[in-house]
Fold this protein.
Amino acid sequence: MARYRVTAPTFLEAVLREPGEVIDYVGDPGSALAPLDAAARRAVKAYRARRAAVVAASPAAEEQSSAAPLSSTTED
């Protein structure tokens, strides 16, 4: 099981976890969990890869990548 340190107040499995707590957790590690062992580092890496793939495949990401830049360097 992966071991994490809680970095911000967060609810996990219907329990409020406080910063500084060290917990064993099997679910997806959000940004409030800092990995403490190899299993946790692997879980964080896998979770971030899955999230990046979802974001990259979203229609909003495609629209943003093809949209015109918001700022212009031309002067009137």
DSSP finds two helices and five strands in the chain.
